[in-house]
Design goal:
The protein is an all-alpha fold. Helix 1 (3-30) runs antiparallel to helix 3 (50-80). It has 3 helices and no strands.
Length: 81
């Protein structure tokens, strides 16, 4: 695989993951109470604890997005020129 193709793959991975991250963040921000109550019924964890889990989830997702998508994409862009 050529570096240009690899750069394109990492670029599209970044775009797809950003869409998923944004979609999840919007659901959590706009429908927090509904999602917390739904998750509490499904998982048995009190609804008051879910916001902390959501923040942890989003922060880990963002970190993985940066480490495994953004950083390699930028590195390839720099190398390819």
């Amino acid at each position: 695989m050529e570096t240009a193709e690899l750069t394109a793959v990492f670029g599209w991975m970044l775009v797809i993951n950003l869409v998923i991250y944004t979609w999840a963040a919007l659901w959590i921000v706009l429908a927090r109470d509904w999602i917390s109550n739904l998750q509490a019924r499904i998982m048995g964890v009190p609804a008051e604890e879910w916001p902390a889990y959501y923040i942890d989830y989003l922060s880990r997702y963002k970190l993985m997005l940066i480490v495994f998508n953004l950083a390699p994409y930028l590195a390839l862009r720099i190398v390819v020129g």
